[in-house]
Amino acid sequence: MTTTRQRILRTSLDLFNRHGERNVSTNHIADALGISPGNLYYHFRNKGEIIAELFDGYAAQVIGFLTLPEDRTMTWADKTGYFESILDSMWAARFLHRDLGHLLNQDDRLRDRYVSFVDHSLQRGFDVYCGMRAAGLVEGDDATLRGLLMNTWVLATSWASFVHSLVPPARQSEALDRDLLSQGVYQILCLETPYLRGESLERLGEVIARYQVDGQDSMSLLFGLIRQ
Amino acid sequence: MTTTRQRILRTSLDLFNRHGERNVSTNHIADALGISPGNLYYHFRNKGEIIAELFDGYAAQVIGFLTLPEDRTMTWADKTGYFESILDSMWAARFLHRDLGHLLNQDDRLRDRYVSFVDHSLQRGFDVYCGMRAAGLVEGDDATLRGLLMNTWVLATSWASFVHSLVPPARQSEALDRDLLSQGVYQILCLETPYLRGESLERLGEVIARYQVDGQDSMSLLFGLIRQ
């Protein structure tokens, strides 16, 4: 059974993702659910509490999938699984990354949770890269893998806000956002390419074909869309 | 002679960079200059006009340095010069990149100018990479260089806002921001490393030593600072 609390969270997430968190008030959320603002405030004192709970859900999801397989070597399929999970989790909470600076500026406790989340994710991410190295899927010394991981993190978390800032509001759509996010995975693949080995190198073409939109590089894709 | 208009721009830039554009009003700017708000409004109708003019100055500066040397092959010194220029221009207008989404959301004309600027910069950036390739300083086919350039752009323009979002306000300082920006150049070097050839590869250690803060990788540096 879905509780009112869960319905509020789900609807808020949907509205934030569609319209941007700044453009959605608690009244909009109550309206969309057909409940009174008073009922909403019974569950969440303000919008900040809704955002904090959505953030915690997102963070738990990311930390959850950044784990190494137990009692066996990592495979190419595991590596692909991380990509799929990154894409899905970023899509599900895309409002967060589009406007993160704003959200963190408003709420010091959210910033503390975010810092712990980044710290924790990067530690886990490094373990994952070391697991891939042990499995012969990537190559690089620790400093190289840490540099690569940091760049992957900044790219993955900044891409949505970068592309979103370029597309005029009149041209924005869910389908376009989804394509642009997929192209973001292609950009992560560009980052990783020089370090791939074994099966992850052999099957790179296949993975690129899955994520790159219309076989285009990102400059052509982006400016093609904007100039349309 | 410095005009009042120039003094307004210079003081606004300084205040925006120090305190963040959101925390600085036209009254603060007039106060800092010892002029009346009416005098300020005589030169700029609102804060948006000041931001737009500062943006144009920044954009002109970046486009200006993204040019190829005339009548000669590019050298390693040219390549280093691009880095210095990127670092200086980003530092001089750091308020822009810390809160870009917010600024563009507020002003559609600024968004149009920003899109043209990104488009123009990426075209020029590609010419620069092709110049480096012709000079034997980097290696990669066009698709590879375009992927690398896009990642460099996103990293360079997102790094300041990424690190800024992690550091608690009480810990922020100009010296820290400057160090973190320098470490951002180290992250760009990590991106480029696999593609460097000739002198740019031979002298990589020297360049890393110049930008990497305390010889640390960025994860260690960042979380060391935050946990202090």
TrEMBL record, chains A, B:
The keyword RNA-binding does not apply. Residues 25-44 bind DNA. PROSITE patterns: HTH_TETR_2. This is TetR/AcrR family transcriptional regulator. Keywords: DNA-binding. Residues 2-62 form the HTH tetR-type domain. Signal peptide: none annotated. The keyword DNA-binding applies. Pfam families: TetR (PF13972), TetR_N (PF00440). It comes from the Bacteria.
